[in-house]
Design goal:
The protein has 372 residues and is α/β, with parallel strands linked by helices. The chain has helices at 15-27, 34-47, 57-67, 84-92, 111-116, 137-146, 198-207, 215-220, 241-252, 254-272, 303-312, 337-342, 357-371, and strands at 50-54, 75-79, 96-100, 122-126, 150-154, 162-163, 166-167, 174-178, 191-195, 279-281, 293-297, 346-349. The strands form three sheets. A seven-stranded mixed sheet has the order 1-9-8-5-4-2-3, with helices on both faces. Bound molecules: pyridoxal-5'-phosphate.
C-alpha cells in the first residue's frame, strides 16, 4: 500500500480561505449578510445575469423548479445517469422525475429517448452537464422550444465551463450550480441559481428565506424583517456568511483551479490513448472545466474487482453514477439501452487540483498493469 492515498476528489483550500472564515467568525454575524451579498455580486458579474446563493446545489434545483411552478403531478425529463440530487430535487417539488437514456458521446440526455417520454404532464427538462461538459445543449434548447418545456440546467459539475464559446450560466433559461466540498469551486456547502427571469429571481429570493417577502435586502443590510407577509411555500435554504467567504476566495483562485483540472485531464487522455481499444474516454471539448474523469471499461473487465485492486495500491476510484431508475425510491422498469449497457463499466479516476503529474502517472501505470 502506498503511504499516501490518492483521493478521488477532495476540497482544495488555501490560507486565504482560512483567513476569510476567521474574519467572519470575528464579525460574529454568521448568517446571510455582507459576505453572501458580496459573493452574489461577484457571481452575477461573472455570469452577466442574476445569481442567487442558496444552501446547496440540490436546493438550487428545487427552488428553480418551484419558481417555474413545477409541482404535484408534473413530469420533468432527466437522464437516469446523474447524481441522485437531480432526482430528489424534482421529487421534492411533488413532480415526477422521468428517467431518460444518455447519448453515447458525452453521456448527456438522449433526446430521441426523451421524446418518447413526453406526456401532457411534461413541464420541464433538466439537462445534466455530466463531468462538466454541457453535451448537446443547443439541441436540448431546440427540443424544449418544440415541446414548450422550461429548462433547468443541472450545471453542478460545470462551473466555469463554456459551451460554444459562451460561459454556462450566462445564457439560456435557468442554470443551477453546486459549491459542495468537491465541486469545481466550493463554499463548503452551497449553490446558486442563475437566470434573468424576473419571476424566478423574485421567487427564489423569498423562497430561500422561508418565503418571507423581501427579507434578502434586509439581511444584506445586517437587518431582518419583523413585520412581514408570506405568500408562498418557503424553505430554510439560504447561504451563510461563512460559506460565502470560502466561495469568494475560491472564485478569486478559480483560473488556477480550472487550468490545473484541464491539465490533469489532458495528461490522462494522452497517457491512456494507447489503450483506447479497451478504455473509452469522453471526448475533450474546448472550454470545458472537467469536474470528474470518467472512463468506460471494456465489457470483459470486472470493474468492481479492478476498483478493489486499485484501492490496495492507494488509488481511490468512483462510480458516477448508479442509474437512478434502479434505486428503490425511483424504481422504474423501463429499459434504457445505453444506460444499461455502460452502467457497470463506468469508472471515475482521481481528479482534483491538488494532484500532481506524478500522481496521474502512478494511477495510469497501476490501472494498465491491472489490465494486462
Ligand atoms: C453535486 C451535484 C448536485 C447537488 O449539489 P449539492 O450541492 O451536493 O446539493 C446536483 N447534481 C449533480 C449532478 C451533482 O453532482
Amino acid at each position: 500500500m502506498k503511504s499516501k492515498v490518492i483521493r478521488l476528489s477532495k476540497s482544495c483550500l488555501g490560507e486565504n480561505e482560512k483567513t476569510a472564515v476567521l474574519k467572519v467568525l470575528d464579525q460574529e454575524y454568521l448568517g446571510m449578510g455582507k459576505e453572501v451579498n458580496q459573493f452574489e455580486k461577484i457571481l452575477s458579474e461573472y455570469f452577466g445575469r442574476t445569481a442567487l446563493c442558496v444552501s446547496n446545489g440540490t436546493s438550487a434545483l428545487q427552488l428553480a423548479l418551484q419558481a417555474i411552478n413545477i409541482g404535484k403531478g408534473d413530469e420533468v425529463l432527466v437522464q437516469s445517469i446523474t447524481y441522485v440530487a437531480s432526482f430528489q430535487a424534482i421529487s421534492a417539488t411533488g413532480a415526477i422525475p422521468v428517467p431518460c437514456d444518455v447519448e453515447e458521446e458525452f453521456l448527456s440526455i438522449d433526446l430521441k429517448d426523451a421524446e418518447k417520454k413526453i406526456s401532457p404532464r411534461t413541464k420541464a427538462i433538466m439537462p445534466v452537464h455530466y463531468a462538466g461538459c454541457p453535451g448537446k445543449l443547443s439541441e436540448v434548447y431546440k427540443f424544449a422550444s418544440k415541446y414548450k418545456l422550461r429548462i433547468v440546467e443541472d450545471a453542478a459539475h460545470a462551473f466555469g465551463s463554456k459551451y460554444k464559446g459562451k460561459l454556462v450560466g450566462s445564457f439560456g433559461d435557468i442554470s443551477c450550480f453546486s459549491f459542495d466540498g468537491i465541486k469545481n469551486i466550493t463554499s463548503g456547502e452551497g449553490g446558486c441559481v442563475v437566470t434573468n427571469d424576473k419571476n424566478v429571481i423574485e421567487s427564489v429570493s423569498d423562497a430561500r428565506l422561508l418565503g418571507v417577502e423581501k427579507d434578502t435586502e434586509k439581511r444584506f443590510q445586517g437587518k431582518r424583517s419583523w413585520d412581514f407577509d408570506v405568500t408562498r411555500q418557503g424553505w430554510r435554504y439560504h447561504m451563510s456568511n461563512i460559506m460565502a467567504s470560502i466561495g469568494i476566495q475560491q472564485f478569486i483562485n478559480f483560473n488556477k483551479i480550472a487550468k490545473k483540472r484541464k491539465e490533469l485531464q489532458g495528461l490522462y487522455i494522452s497517457l491512456l490513448y494507447k489503450t483506447r481499444s479497451i478504455i473509452k474516454m469522453l471526448p475533450k471539448r474546448e472550454g470545458v472545466v472537467p469536474h470528474i474523469f470518467v472512463i468506460i471499461l471494456d465489457k470483459s473487465i470486472d470493474r468492481d474487482l479492478l476498483r478493489e485492486d486499485l484501492l490496495k495500491k492507494g488509488i481511490e476510484t468512483g462510480i458516477h453514477y448508479v442509474p437512478n431508475h434502479l434505486h428503490t425510491f425511483f424504481k422504474n422498469k423501463i429499459d434504457l439501452k445505453t444506460t444499461s449497457r455502460i452502467k457497470d463499466s463506468l469508472l471515475s479516476l482521481p481528479l482534483h487540483p491538488d494532484l500532481t503529474k506524478q500522481d496521474i502517472e502512478y494511477v495510469v501505470e497501476n490501472l494498465l498493469s491491472e489490465l494486462e
